[in-house]
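User: quick one
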Amino acid sequence: MAKLIELLRKHALLVIGIILLIAPHITSQYEFYVLQRGVQNAIHVVGLLILTGYGGMLSMGSAALLAVGAYAYGILLVKFGLSPWLGMILATALTTIIGAGLAFPSFKLSGPFLVITTIGFGEIVRILLLNLEPITGGAYGLSGFAKLFPNLQWVYYFMVITLMFVIIGTERIGRSRLGLALKAIRQDEVVAESMGIDVRRAKLVAFSLSAMLAGLSGIFLANLTGYMSPDSFTSAESTTYLLMVVMGGMQSVIGTVISAIILTGLPEVLRFLSSSRLLVYSLILLVYLRLNWVKSDNAFLKFLKSITKRFGMYTSSTEPGNRS
Amino acid sequence: MTIATLFQLILNGLAMGVIYSLPALGISLIWNASGLFNFAQGDLLTLGGYLMLSIFGALKIPYIPAFVTVIVIMGLLGYILSQIYFYPMLEQGVNPQIILIGTIALSVFIRNLILVIWGSTPQTYANPFGSKVMQIGKLYLMPHVIGIVIIVTLLLIFLQYFLRGTMIGTAMRAVAQNQTASWLMGIRNDRMIALTFLLSTAIAAVSGILISPIIPLTPSMGGIIAVKAMSAVVIGGLGSFTGALVGGIVVGVAETIFATLVDPAYRDVFTFVVLVIFLLFRPGGIFRAQISEKV
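Assistant: Done. Structure below.
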């Protein structure tokens, strides 16, 4: 059993890929939709992982970047009549540029101040989307744009392939110069800078990469739903994405992907909770944080902790230097 | 636009501003005592408002006893939260980022708890200050505007006395200045930090109670108020008592004037733009707080 788990962990990427490719054939239409949303969220959340997990910069404005990607795609197609593929490229580029702009406050600010800035950015985007009615459709939302592929199944396979590339790419980034630089910045920015790391450049690249993936994910979201409204991009959504990163272990790409897919599907399983799904999420997160990061002699707490360990959630405390 | 209307706008903005000031003050107090930025402050405020809705609006308990009950309940909640959740993490020297995520999770938790218990429809209860418009000269004022300003002023005088004039308040300030030294002086750090949480949750609750006549209660109301309170904290200067107060009033008055003169739809955008400008060019706020990291 232990060996099997070891084997599965070693080839996690392969396993996930196979499961995702088989899944459309064995799921019902509704389950398939949820799975699509899961994959789409995973692309976005992996981007957030580069920023938050590697770089240690919390962002509460990630849903806004998603919105920028989705709306840019929709507007380019509906108002300017571009072809979907061109629209996709331009929308991703636009989101990346805006995301890179978000990096500039991060040069000066850290911790809570950066979080406030990103919350502010998220709210500004949401209010603009609501009020610039001639362009964005306001509260009525935007619809009627063409899709990348005529068939949703093809969109799904395209997403899965993108996700695979994103996973491999992000893991490589994690081991590359950039990833190591970001991890050093997370642990101590001053030391990192004195070691000769170009902190600004690393932050800029991290923000841009994460925005690019958010933009891509937004475009896929537009493709999946065919309709968007400002309500789908509130700060509560940003919190959910942040939660997916934390539950995925903050460091592991595969863990993040799995947690994104599971947390997207969880509300469907927990149907009976309907409006309180976020209640359950946040409670799990609260308990998880408390158990994982605080040593305790209490037998019951230790028992709970052993459960979270068994599920394979990555404990950051094993990594040296994570405790400040 | 006459002077009278401007004056009226300023007074209305002032009432809104002091409501932002109180959670801002709570954020500042906790930041000073423990270096923790509490993102759940806005939702604790909402919870206070909803408790008042149940106790005063539904159970028909008179205003002042209901007011006191809510504050006591919320204060206890803050104390317990600190003792079982935040202090153990602070004590172990957990990465501040993780605790930050903890407060964000707490905020989501409280918001959804309210949603589950009280539902999502906006609710309000009878205005305890009466809803008859008062006329003073050319000014038209709602009585609650005056009520709010008076209650908050009294609260601030009490807080100032508590922090400066009593032994416990001095101990709390000592912990905020230097934890090791105060520990050596025989002060229980955990209790003092828990007391700070108690105080800041209780004043957030006051703000939640007072807000009801101005805007109806909704579960997600805390989010936007929290951002305004954070703006107030940043604009005023994090960690400063006066800063939080002045910041809140500046935000309240400025956005009320902007909403009337320019466009109410972009009121929040205006506040955030001001906030971002402050963060970028004067992150210490009006009363320059020390925010750059010590090497």
